[in-house]
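This part of the workshop introduces the protein records we will be handling. Getting from the letters to the C-alpha cells is the skill we practise here. An example says more than a description, so a record of this kind follows:
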Amino acid sequence: MAEAYIVGAVRTPVGTRKSALAAVHPADLGAHVLKESVQRTGVDPAAVEDVIMGCVSQVGPQSLDLARTAWLSAGLPETTAGVTIDRQCGSSQQAVHFAAQGVMSGTQDLVMAAGVENMGMVPMGASVQYALDNGLDIYGSGWVDRYGTQEISQFRGAQLMCEKWGFTREDLERYALESHRRAAEAVAEGRFDTETAPLAGVERDEGARPDTSMEKMAGLKPLREGWAITAAVASQISVGAGAVLIASERAVEEHGLTPLARIVQLSLVGDDPVYMLTAPIPATRAALKKAGLSIGDIDVTEINEAFAPVPLAWARELGADLDTTNPNGGAIALGHPLGATGAVLMTKLVHELHRTGGRYGLQTMCEGGGQANVTIIERV
C-alpha cells in the first residue's frame, strides 16, 4: 500500500460566535485556508485533484457544495473538483481519512482535506430546522422501532456518561479549568502562531478564559435540574476553518514538498447512539491494535472536548496520560466549530509533535449517531 503524507496543515484562529470571523462568509473562510495551504506548501494548485471539506450545517451560506465554492472563491484552478461531507463533529477528520485513502489506494496523489463551520452565521441545528418548522419527524419509523421515542441528544449523552463513570460536577469543572489554563498559556506563548492564518483582524484563538475559576463555574445552572453538565464543561460555539494537504510519495518528490507527518492508521467505529459520545473508546482500541501500538506509544493526543466526560472516560478506559492529552487545551476553552474541528485538531496535532519532538500522535472525537474517527500519525 502506498504511503500518505501530511505536507501542509493550516487553520484560522478559532473565533467565538460574536467574533469578527462570524461576519465572514463560510466560502471565504474556507477559501482563506485553502489559499494559505497552497501558498505555504508551494504546491501547484492545478495538481490538487480534489478538495474534500467537512461541514455539518449545510444550509444557507454553507450549502451548494461548500468545498467547490470555497476553492473557486480562493481564485484557484477550475480544474480541481470539490465535495462536501457530513460525519457530524468528525466531518473534517473524515475528510482527512478520505483524502489519505485516495492517496494510499494509488488513485490520487494530491488531495486537500478541509473543514469549515461558521456557527455565528449558521446556527447549530439549522439543518434540522426545516423538519421542526413543518412538523416532520427527524427519525423514521425504523429508528423508533429500534430505539423508541427516548431523547437522543449530545446533552443527554454527556449526562449518561457522567452517571455511568461516576463523574461529579466538580470532576468536570476541574477538567474544564485545566483546559482553559492550558489554552490561555498556549495562546499567550504564541504556540499556535505558526499554524494559524489570521483573518478579519483576528490573529489568535479567542475562546480561552484565563480568569475563569472553580467558583465562577460553580455558580452556573446545570442544563437540567440534577445534572452535572453545565455550559462551563461543554465545548464553545465557534467559527473556524482548517486545511490539511495530503500527498503521495511521488507527489512529494515531483513537487518538492516537505512531509510533516506520515499517516499510520485510519479507523472508524460506531457505538451506542443513545450515549452518542462514547465511541472514541472502542475506536482508539481498534486503531491501536491495527497499528501494533499501545497507548503508551502515543506522545500527543487531541481528543475533542465536546463535553468534559468524553476525554475523562476515554483516558480512564484507555489508561491514557492526561498530561499529554490536549496539552494546549481543548474545545472547552478553544471552541468547536463543528465541521472544521477535525482539520483544526489535526493541524494542532502535527505542529505540536514538531514543537515537542514527539513521534506518534493520535486524534479522535465523538460524533453524532454514536461514531468516532481515530487517526494515528507519525512525525517526519
User: Anything to note?
Assistant: The two ends are 18 Å apart (CA to CA). The domain at 264-379 is CATH 3.40.47.10 (Peroxisomal Thiolase; Chain A, domain 1).
